[in-house]
Amino acid sequence: MKIGVFGNFGIGNFGNEATFAAMLDTLKRFRPDAELTCICTNPDQVRQDYGLQAVPLNTAGRSPLMRKLSNIWYAIEVVRKLDVLIIPGTGILNDYCAPPFGLPYTLFRWSLAARLCGTRLALVSIGAGPLHHGLTKWFVLRSAAMATYRSYRNEFSKNYLAGLGFDVSNDPVYPDLAFALPIPSAPPQAAPAQRLTVCIGAMHYQGWRGHLETDENIYETYLGKLRDFALWLLERGMRVQLVMGDERDWRAVCDLRQAISAARPSLPDDLVVVERAAGWQDAFRQLRAADIVVATRFHTLVFALMLGKPTISVGYSEYHAELIETMGLGGFAQHSESIDLEVLINQFSELSSNRAKYEPVIMQRAETARSMLADQEQKVMHRLFGQSSQPLGATKDVAVS
């Protein structure tokens, strides 16, 4: 059995890597004899991190036209050797920071190759929308239509495609695949902290178009709101930890720390903690220290919620707010481009005052998400391989190096 796993992997995005790790866990439990190939953005990094065979999404060409033609043949050459091609999670069906002939066209090319070669294609708990360019919509809808199996990680994604006239009547909604990950083990219990610790997940966010249409005003305004909130916390004797969800967020973490220091130059260093994270395991470890989490990246929210942390979303899409509501925290969300500091303070005050009320609800919803993913695992594996998989293990902490 030869299985390909396709995605934007190896680029230092903790959410993408966590999603990939969750799918690898499923495949290794179900088909330990299978030959796995990752088709990804940075195959060298994937080979180093996972010891897997990996190939690039694209191959080189001497001219744009020749590159497009050679890439079609290249995709066919790779996919014709596979029995199954799986696209696990991530916001693969949107155009965040992606022009039509970027990832949307790449996805279409590989989906078409799967169809031409008779290779089964599965889109598992993927994110969809929004899409802003007509050609991008065409690529995305044609790609989705060629899948043997489709499921979405939220109602927003399913409804968005339905709004474009795509038939989603047989497509289920399941939680994000990262909810199936084993939670990294906790360190030995220390004495209760004297201060409340608030983790702020900062992102190098410049608007939906991001680096395609760089808007430093969006970034500066967003970072300024987080700075003002952090200062409010510090003035009330709390400890702030700045966390990242992608290697590119290190700039945002450093910029935010510098902005806080500029406003409060005499602030003791131990009250604002900054530590560079190397991956999703590090992100879990840092978030575990939090009493409350305020974050922008989707998977930083997911990780915090898996740990049962009362969490506020300052994310950039409607599906951030949907995630928060699904986890029993409806109303604790704002858009990253329109953060209202007074509202954020009120949201924080409610969560911090009633942690004992919200924490068990979050943990119960996280366990429900895990159970739902176990159900999807059985259905996907039966659809693709005609057999039942080994069940997901019991929820427990396991050591992660």
From TrEMBL:
Q: Which UniProt keywords apply?
A: Transferase
Q: Does the keyword Transmembrane apply?
A: no
Q: Which GO terms describe its molecular function?
A: transferase activity
Keyword Ubl conjugation attributed: no
Sequence ranges assigned to domain Polysaccharide pyruvyl transferase in this UniProt record: 13-317
- Which SUPFAM superfamilies is this protein grouped with? UDP-Glycosyltransferase/glycogen phosphorylase
Pfam annotation, one family: PS_pyruv_trans
- PANTHER family the UniProt entry points to: COLANIC ACID BIOSYNTHESIS PROTEIN WCAK (PTHR36836:SF1)
Protein name in UniProt: Polysaccharide pyruvyl transferase family protein
Q: Which organism is it from?
A: Bradyrhizobium denitrificans
Its organism's taxonomic lineage begins at:
Bacteria, Pseudomonadati, Pseudomonadota, Alphaproteobacteria, Hyphomicrobiales
